[in-house]
Design goal:
The complex is a heterodimer of chains A (259) and B (275).
Chain A: H1 3-25, H2 27-47, H3 62-91, H4 94-101, H5 106-133, H6 142-170, H7 176-188, H8 202-209, H9 211-223, H10 230-258
Helix pairs in contact in A: 1-2, 1-5, 2-3, 2-5, 3-5, 3-6, 3-7, 3-9, 5-6, 6-7, 6-9, 6-10, 9-10
Chain B: H1 3-8, H2 11-14, H3 21-38, H4 40-60, H5 75-104, H6 107-112, H7 118-146, H8 154-183, H9 186-191, H10 193-201, H11 215-223, H12 225-238, H13 243-274
Helix pairs in contact in B: 3-7, 4-5, 4-7, 5-7, 5-8, 5-10, 5-12, 7-8, 8-12, 8-13, 12-13
The chains are: A mainly alpha (259), B mainly alpha (275).
Chain lengths: 259, 275
């Protein structure tokens, strides 16, 4: 590993370590990102379970159907919540000191991404335990599950880059709704409650072109061991990462220019 | 002229020693309404978010209308109860944040120097909430009808719908007011929002209670008062005149309003002692 790479890794790890330490020291920061997915899982899988009796709803288990949604949704919101943390770091001056102290400023963003991933892994663990306890049915093999995990990790990374880009542009917690709203819109205009072919009206058209749809549908197919368009989902997630990495990079430049 | 300045002009007339409670309520209500109307950002989220959720749900859950026993063939009409309820919950936040903001920015302290009666402060603050509830209700109804929603209760039902909307807004506004007065912090009021969100979603907002197949969820939805408020709104859209649903919604709203007023009065007393 070159000296440059070593500096990058050290910088990223230092930022990530601080993020994880703050998370452990202040559980109130992790609770919302834990509670919301669990709440959505309870409200959707519990309250809407009768929807699986609708004609042409051919998915074997509504709990499993909603579990994948909650998994992917929490992947995105893990990134969004990390964006709030970055915005707060800028608002209270810590991020500016980081910018001054860092050899490689991209390492700061990488550090935040590690924190977001750990946060998401924690949430997925809890959600999965709850889902298993309440009737999650998994027919896919280990490879299928790993593929779901890869897609979720990629979504988490893309969302973190998006949220970082926003946070570094606005550098205030007041931008929280602006960070949250696009994520909320993309999530809710996918096939949330029923498969795509049962959606009616304008949401059906939006869901067709919504990139989140491909990742969600692949996850739902993989978990039941059905043929899935995994390549499409990974491709979409990779495309999002490329776009959002650029968004975060230009956001970082703006934060540097702002001083 | 700012809302505060407008309300405080001619101070002798506003909260002078001889001003009656109704006069005081009038001035504070005017300030509250002016502030609500002059800050579109306070109204826009409570209009946009419920309507967005309505649009998404009515498309995504239209398939549920073919379930045996589903009370209507239009999920849009069915989901409007949830929309009205969601708007009322935004009123909670609005009222709480307004009074907490007044405390944080010192306006409350200045009011303390006047012979203003506590009940006038509470009633005046709630006037803005009621107006907001009415504006929301009108907007929801117009947009829903434009997109093909049914309204079975007819023209007289519209009056009942707006009255119920204002009443539920007042009820939850009084709770928000109590929280705002108790905490004196707008961020703390914001922190209550997830709890209200839980009440909204663990209810019969998405499916009728008898179609909820999950036992624990059905129990929670049955115990959740928000279910009955939603069902009251919904009955006007899909049933027409359902005395039981309306009586439950009105009765529960009045009970919540009384509790909220009691809690707000107690919190106001404590807040006055602190300042």
């Amino acid at each position: 590993m070159s000296a440059l790479e070593t500096r990058f890794a050290r910088g990223a790890w230092a930022v990530a370590w601080r993020g994880l330490h703050v998370m452990a020291a202040k559980p109130s920061l992790i609770i919302p990102s834990l509670v919301f997915p669990l709440f959505f899982f309870a409200a959707f899988a519990g309250g809407l379970s009768a929807v699986d009796q609708a004609p042409n709803f051919d998915y074997p288990s509504y709990t499993t159907f909603q579990y994948v949604f909650v998994l992917m949704q929490s992947a995105i919101f893990g990134g969004v919540f990390t964006g709030f943390g970055i915005a707060a770091d800028f608002e209270f001056g810590f991020a500016r000191r980081l910018l001054i102290a860092s050899h490689n400023r991209s390492a700061i963003v990488a550090g935040y991404a590690i924190t977001a991933l750990v946060r998401a892994l924690l949430v997925w663990t809890v959600v999965t335990i709850v889902a298993i306890a309440t009737g999650l049915e998994v027919s896919g093999n280990v490879g299928d599950i790993l593929e779901i995990l890869v897609i979720a990790v990629m979504l988490n990374f893309a969302a973190t880059m998006f949220a970082s880009g926003m946070a570094m542009r606005f550098r205030t917690l007041q931008a929280a709704p602006l960070i949250q709203l696009p994520a909320f819109l993309i999530i809710m205009t996918a096939p949330v409650y029923v498969p795509r072919d049962l959606i009616e009206g304008w949401v059906a058209s939006v869901a067709e072109v919504n990139p989140f749809t491909a990742t969600l549908e692949a996850g739902r197919d993989l978990i039941i061991g059905a043929p899935a368009e995994t390549l499409l989902a990974v491709g979409v997630a990779a495309g999002l990462i490329v776009v959002m990495l650029n968004w975060a990079r230009t956001g970082l430049r703006r934060a540097e220019a702002a001083g | 002229m700012t809302a505060d300045a407008a309300a405080l002009r001619a101070p002798g007339r506003l909260v002078g020693a001889h001003a009656g409670t109704l006069t005081q309520v009038g001035y504070l209500a005017r300030r509250s309404i002016t502030r609500t109307v002059r800050q579109p950002l306070m109204i826009v989220p409570s209009l946009v978010f419920p309507l967005f959720l309505l649009a998404v749900n009515s498309s995504g859950l239209e398939a549920a209308t073919v379930l045996p026993g589903f009370p209507t063939d239009s999920y849009l009409s069915f989901a409007l109860g949830l929309t009205f309820m969601q708007g009322a919950l935004f009123a909670t936040m609005g009222a709480g944040q307004s009074i907490a903001g007044d405390i944080q920015h010192g306006f409350f302290n200045r009011l303390q120097l006047t012979p203003l009666r506590g009940r006038a402060l509470i009633a005046g603050q709630l006037a803005g909430v009621m107006i907001q509830g009415l504006i929301q209700g009108i907007a929801y109804l117009i947009i829903a009808l434009a997109f093909g929603a049914e309204f079975e209760a007819g023209p007289a039902g519209v009056i009942v719908l707006f009255a119920l909307s204002a009443l539920v807004g007042l009820a939850f506004g009084s709770i928000g007011l109590a929280i705002g007065l108790r905490t004196g912090n707008a961020e703390a009021v914001q922190g209550v929002f997830p709890l209200l969100f839980v009440l909204l979603f663990l209810s019969s907002g998405a499916l009728p209670r008898d179609l909820i197949t999950n036992d624990w969820f059905q129990t929670v939805a049955t115990l959740n008062p928000v279910s009955y408020l939603i069902e009251g709104f919904r009955s006007l859209f899909i049933t027409g005149w359902d005395g039981e649903a309306l009586a439950l919604a009105i009765g529960l709203s009045v009970a919540i309003l009384l509790f909220g007023m009691w809690a707000a009065t107690a919190a106001l007393r404590t807040q006055m002692e602190r300042t």
